[in-house]
């Protein structure tokens, strides 16, 4: 067996295993929240907790140091936790991971990207530590692989997610401003010694008001104030744009565009795929006034699918199929490029209890018998039959309409009845 064919077989079997696990977990009560989003959220939360544990262990030391010596004047006089190699970066990374882990349940693409970045930073910090934290590094690498493997399931973007990120960013910034100015309190004139004063200074600094009643007098305090001003402007600008602009756009759309009626998904055909065969099938169905619902990973505005009824999601997910109206559909046609994905769509449709006819396409002759095992109502093999008809024509074998349709369409017993 060649390395290429071995790689292809392992890839197909890996996808089958993942889909099998996913279907089993999602069939359980609340399963759509468990896999993979709930498991990944738990892993991210555990990694974040592990990263902030050094801070929890040092809290009493920081508290006693603050009570004994008061605020520090510069970075050199900070408690020992701040001088541990990678201590503060790992703590900040862990805090972000814990807070963002909840957002993974929302299937947010932005939150997925932030957690992926935090995981990469955590790995980078581990690599620069001595001795090398092997367990932590292995856990981070495992999480990184899982995030990349299930990246396609995080495809949501909404105003709620934007608001969540905005509020979270502002809270993190406020924490940085309050505790940072309090810890470096002796670096200011007059010194910042209470939480109230720290809150006041953080707010007027981030708002770029600057009354001048509290000013930094050490280089470290000045650098801290510069970072606070830059972060304040950046976070507040990004937060406002991520919440207000979508709201304004939505209101403008409602005012200028006619209200779009929700399609009635009944006695319709569910189409999966956007390739040439899927496009041709869609055009032929719509030309006969047959309602079609398209399942795609993201919205498509290109012709011929512009303006058609679309459902965003994984076609092998039973919940997505139910949203597309599988229980009231006449047929479901899966014309994806991956034969294994087409088989999984048929299995998912069977799991919903739908009586809709199932039609799938097959690209590889080697996968034809495997597709037959899932018992679709119809199997289309245009590429396979195309090659066979060409060979028949060149060999002067009889090729007529009956031969073509007999070879192009493979139906099981139910369809023949």
Short description:
Keywords: Ion channel, Ion transport, Membrane, Transmembrane, Transmembrane helix, Transport. The chain is α/β, with parallel strands linked by helices and 417 residues long. It is built from 15 helices and 9 strands.
Keywords:
Rossmann fold, 15 helices, alpha/beta, single chain, 9 strands, 3 domains, two-stranded antiparallel ribbon, Helix Hairpins, disordered C terminus, elongated, 417 residues, seven-stranded mixed β-sheet
Structure characterization notes:
This protein has 417 residues and is an alpha/beta fold. It folds into 3 domains: 1-155, no CATH class; 158-260, Helix Hairpins (Orthogonal Bundle); 269-416, Rossmann fold, CATH 3.40.50.720. Helix content is 60%, strand content 8%. It is built from 15 helices and 9 strands. It has helices spanning 3-26, 31-69, 87-101, 109-127, 134-149, 159-183, 195-206, 219-256, 276-287, 318-323, 339-351, 368-373, 382-394, 401-408, 413-416, and strands at 188-189, 215-216, 269-272, 292-296, 309-312, 331-334, 357-361, 378-380, 409-411. A 7-stranded mixed sheet has the order 5-4-3-6-7-8-9, with helices on both faces. A two-stranded antiparallel sheet has the order 1-2. Helix 12 (368-373) links the parallel strand 7 and strand 8. The model is unreliable at 27-31 and 410-417 (pLDDT under 50).
């Amino acid at each position: 067996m060649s390395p290429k064919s071995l790689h292809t077989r392992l890839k197909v079997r890996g996808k089958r295993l993942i889909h099998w696990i996913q279907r089993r977990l999602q069939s359980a009560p609340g399963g759509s929240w468990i896999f993979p989003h709930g498991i990944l959220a738990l892993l991210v939360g555990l990694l974040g907790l592990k990263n902030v544990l050094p801070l929890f262990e040092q809290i009493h030391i920081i508290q006693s140091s603050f009570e004994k010596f008061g605020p520090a004047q510069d970075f050199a006089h900070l408690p020992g936790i701040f001088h541990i190699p990678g201590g503060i970066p790992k703590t900040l990374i862990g805090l972000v991971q814990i807070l963002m882990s909840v957002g993974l349940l929302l299937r947010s693409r932005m939150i997925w990207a932030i957690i992926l970045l935090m995981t990469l930073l955590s790995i980078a910090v581990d690599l620069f530590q001595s001795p090398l934290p092997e367990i932590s590094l292995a856990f981070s690498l495992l999480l990184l692989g899982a995030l990349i493997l299930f990246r396609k399931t995080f495809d949501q973007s909404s105003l709620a997610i934007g608001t969540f990120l905005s509020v979270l960013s502002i809270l993190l910034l406020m924490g940085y401003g309050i505790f940072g100015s309090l810890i470096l309190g002796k670096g200011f004139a007059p010194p910042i010694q209470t939480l109230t004063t720290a809150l006041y200074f953080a707010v007027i600094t981030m708002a770029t008001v600057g009354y001048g009643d509290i000013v930094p007098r050490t280089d470290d305090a000045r650098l801290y104030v510069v970072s606070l001003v830059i972060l304040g402007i950046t976070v507040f600008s990004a937060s406002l744009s991520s919440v207000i602009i979508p709201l304004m756009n939505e209101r403008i759309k409602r005012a200028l565009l006619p209200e779009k009626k929700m399609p009635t998904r009944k006695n319709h055909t569910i189409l999966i795929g956007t390739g040439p065969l899927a496009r041709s099938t869609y055009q032929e169905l719509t030309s006969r006034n047959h309602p079609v619902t398209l399942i795609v990973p993201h919205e498509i505005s290109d012709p011929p699918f512009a303006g058609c009824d679309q459902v965003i999601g994984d076609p092998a997910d039973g919940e997505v199929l139910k949203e597309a109206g599988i229980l009231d559909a006449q047929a479901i046609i899966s014309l994806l490029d991956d034969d294994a994905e087409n088989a999984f769509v048929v299995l998912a449709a069977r799991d919903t209890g739908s009586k809709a006819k199932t039609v799938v396409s097959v690209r590889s002759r080697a996968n034809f018998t495997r597709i037959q095992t899932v018992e679709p109502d119809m199997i289309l093999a245009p590429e396979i039959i195309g090659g066979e008809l060409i060979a028949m024509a060149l060999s002067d074998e009889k090729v007529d309409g009956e031969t073509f349709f007999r070879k192009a369409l493979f139906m099981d017993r139910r369809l023949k009845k």
